[in-house]
Write a structure and sequence with these properties.
Radius of gyration of chain B: 13 Å
Number of helices of chain A: 0
Number of helices of chain B: 0
Distance between the termini of chain B: 38 Å
Strand content of chain A: over 45%
Largest sheet of chain B: 5 strands, mixed
Largest sheet of chain A: 7 strands, mixed
Oligomer: heterodimer
Radius of gyration of chain A: 13 Å
Distance between the termini of chain A: 37 Å
Structural class of chain A: mainly beta
Largest interface: A-B, 29 and 22 residues
Shape of chain B: globular
Helix content of chain A: under 10%
């Protein structure tokens, strides 16, 4: 059973461009979470999604950031008009939900975003 | 969710048991204690969780005090690959965000 997959692993963007980060949850998992880790800082929750629904977006910046988890395909974290302060590691996690435990979240390897 | 307090760093000799403490004095009756770790630059890894009873799996043991105000994660035979930041997290077992504190940076030394 493949683990959580994230791509790309490394992404370089210039200021003002858009960044799209993809996350494929583990097979059978219907819950996806996104976290951000700024350089030399701790992990911060961003958003929690289930298929086609945003459950908790309390950690998402108010502007430029959006996330989706469509019925088919991976979850996408989109950052529009990136700035240097968006440079960070972005981790996706998935969990099976009620049937298998909510908070045993399985993390992907992360996407390292560098904004020039 | 209850707040946790962990020492910022600890050292452990290779092959010895690593005992990582966590205080969670404001924990409520239906909140679980979860432990995760993050090995340098990798995604965090789930280790173990518990409610009241002590728990053991292939990675570690979790000892929760009777009053549930503190717990200890035990790595019985630490190896160099166990060097990581260890996070103690308290929350309801109903889904949602993990709140990561500063954790304990464990260094396993030869």
């Amino acid at each position: 059973n493949a683990g959580v997959m994230q791509n790309p692993r490394h992404l370089v963007r210039r200021r003002g461009q858009e960044a799209r980060l993809r996350c494929s949850p583990m097979k059978g998992h219907s819950h996806v979470y996104w976290y951000r880790q700024l350089p030399e800082e701790g992990l911060k929750f961003m958003v929690y999604l289930q298929k086609e629904n945003i459950i908790d977006e309390s950690g998402m910046p108010k502007e430029r950031f959006s996330a989706e988890f469509p019925k088919e395909g991976p979850s996408i974290l989109r950052i529009q008009q990136v700035v240097r302060g968006d440079s960070a590691a972005y981790f996706c996690a998935s969990s099976p939900g009620a049937s298998g435990g909510y908070n045993e979240q399985f993390f992907g390897p992360g996407t390292r975003l560098t904004v020039l | 969710d209850a707040k946790t307090t962990q020492p910022p760093s600890m050292d452990c000799a290779e092959g010895r048991a690593a005992n990582l403490p966590c205080n969670h004095s404001t924990i409520s009756g239906n909140e679980y204690v979860y432990w995760y770790r993050q090995i340098h630059s990798q995604g965090p890894q789930y280790i173990i969780h518990g409610l009241k009873n002590n728990e053991t799996n292939e990675m570690a043991s979790l000892i929760i005090t009777e009053d549930r105000k503190s717990s200890t994660l035990i790595l019985p035979h630490a190896t160099l690959r166990d060097t990581a930041v260890y996070y103690c997290i308290v929350l309801y077992n109903q889904g949602g965000k993990l709140i990561f504190g500063q954790g304990t940076e464990l260094s396993v030394k030869p």
